[in-house]
Design a protein that fits this description.
Blueprint: H1 3-11, H2 18-21, H3 23-31, E1 36-39, E2 46-49, H4 52-60, E3 64-66, H5 78-85, H6 93-104, H7 109-113, H8 116-133, E4 135-137, H9 138-155, H10 164-176, H11 182-208, H12 214-221, H13 226-257, H14 259-267, H15 272-282, E5 288-293, E6 297-299, E7 302-304, E8 309-313, H16 314-317, H17 352-369, E9 370-375, E10 395-400
Parallel strand pairs: 2-8
Antiparallel strand pairs: 1-2, 3-5, 4-10, 5-8, 6-7, 9-10
Helix pairs in contact: 5-11, 5-13, 8-9, 8-17, 9-13, 10-11, 10-13, 11-13, 13-15, 13-17, 15-17
This protein binds protoporphyrin IX containing FE (HEM).
Protoporphyrin IX containing FE binds near residues 247 and 349.
Keywords: Heme, Iron, Metal-binding, Monooxygenase, Oxidoreductase
Protein name: Cytochrome P450 for pimelic acid formation for biotin biosynthesis
Family: Belongs to the cytochrome P450 family.
Length: about 400
């Protein structure tokens, strides 16, 4: 880098809090530096990648390994580290492929389509209750109960345990977010120990009395170690709850801010599918993932040294003006929305079909029954996470269609 651009680089003020307070403003400022920029917004310095082409390339190239679990703590947090190291999200090459192929058997499009009647029934009964109330919180009263019931049914978790999952999932999500504090890690480490015991005993129960669920299916396959099984179930609890809750909540939020698009959807309900793709692009529930370079290489003319961390800003790639016309506009009639919100390559989201189905049904049914809705006077707050776009609460009042 020459002296002029070095001075300029020093001038941009990059703050970690902007990642949740003003992510799109931050991405814009980063993009001004080019598609890839070296900086230290997060605890561990690294390359911040905002370009679509570069993000897609890194996600697909196996010479970049997935991020390392808890790089900042080698000795401490041993329970959490043990759990994370057996999650497929943190595995590479053959170990990853083996586990992924196995778990994927529970997420085929046919299997997921089989959940449609359950999802429709749950959405309808939630809306029956909420519409009568006229005012409610979308996050905790609509999105969470839906996604929680669906993932618990898939896994085969007993009904009486399901309410505890919300707090578990929220804490564990923080532990994989780059904002994690030592306090979070300590609490997550303790939870990881408790959850290992919880799932160990559930596995024993299912061995004795198998059901028609994913836990029983994976036990029957007999191809995973007990630790791999436990880590997989914990990963699915986090992924199944958190990101899909955020997709549904972000959908209702985004339409609230774009009433003309809401009107268009009301007039043409067949747009629900493309509307969800546009929300995924515009307010992606996952904003950032990371990779580690396993050899010296070059990306967009920059030299990357083996061992360096690359932060892939999916939410920025999704607004790259080289790929999307009017990237900062929310337009549900876009013809092509090749967003990167579910990642790409070997780690492409295993639950994307399920997340899309839940969100499409939730939006279709909501828009059929609700004519207009407004935000109550409570302030909109995003959770202080760097990698996820997650509303704390979204209280609305609804007016029905009839
Ligand atoms: C809107 C909802 C969702 C979003 C935005 C999302 C996003 C993502 C992204 C970006 C990745 C790739 C991470 C990387 O490459 O580093 C991923 C991986 C994954 N997702 Fe999702 N996800 C969602 C819902 C779900 C659901 C419902 C499940 C399961 C029930 C799920 C399970 C997984 C798993 C297991 C992986 C790891 C795959 C692997 O490492 O091979 N996700 N997800």
């Amino acid at each position: 880098m020459n002296t002029v651009s070095q001075t300029k680089a020093k001038q941009i003020r990059l703050k970690r809090d902007d990642l949740f307070k003003d992510p799109y403003g931050l991405y814009k400022r980063l993009r001004e530096r080019g598609p890839i920029y070296k900086g230290s917004i997060l605890k561990q310095p690294g390359w911040f990648v905002t370009g679509y082409k570069e993000t897609a390339y890194i996600l697909k190239d196996s010479s970049f390994f997935t991020r390392i679990p808890l790089p900042e703590a080698t000795e401490k947090y041993s329970h959490l580290k043990q759990i994370q190291s057996k999650m497929m999200l943190y595995m590479n090459k053959e170990d990853h492929r083996k586990l992924r192929l196995l778990v994927n058997k529970g997420f085929t499009p046919k299997q997921i389509a089989g959940f449609r009647p359950l999802i429709e029934e749950v959405v309808d009964s939630l809306l029956d209750e909420l519409i009568v109330k006229e005012e409610f919180d979308v996050v905790s009263e609509f999105a969470f109960p839906l996604t929680s019931l669906v993932i618990a049914t898939i896994l085969g978790v007993p009904e009486e345990d399901r309410d505890r999952f919300r707090a578990w999932a929220a804490l564990l999500l923080q532990s994989i977010d780059f904002s994690r504090s030592h306090k979070t890690l300590e609490a997550s480490d303790q939870l990881a120990e408790e959850l290992s015991e919880y799932f160990s005993s559930l596995i024993a129960q299912k061995r004795a009395e198998p059901g028609d669920d994913l836990i029983s299916m994976l036990i029957k396959e007999n191809d995973c170690t007990e630790n791999e099984l436990i880590s997989t179930f914990i990963l699915l609890v986090i992924a199944g709850h958190e990101t899909t809750v955020n997709l549904i909540s972000n959908t209702i939020y985004t339409f609230l801010k774009h009433p003309e698009q809401w009107k268009m959807l009301n007039e043409n309900p067949t747009l629900a599918g493309s509307a969800i793709e546009e929300v995924l692009r515009f307010e992606s529930p996952t904003q950032l993932t990371a990779r580690v370079a396993m050899k010296d290489t070059e990306v967009a003319g920059k030299h990357i040294t083996c061992g360096e961390q690359l932060y892939l800003m999916l939410g920025a790639a999704n607004r790259d003006p080289d790929v999307f016309d009017e990237p900062d506009e929310f337009l549900i009639t876009r013809k092509k929305v090749p967003h990167l919100s579910f990642g790409l390559g070997a780690h492409f989201c295993l639950g994307s079909t399920l997340a899309r189905l839940e969100a499409q049904i939730a939006l279709s049914r909501f828009s059929k029954r609700v004519h207009t809705y407004n935000q109550t006077k409570t302030e909109i707050k995003w959770r202080p996470l760097t990698g996820f776009r997650a509303l704390e609460k979204l209280r609305i009042t609804v007016q029905t269609s009839n």
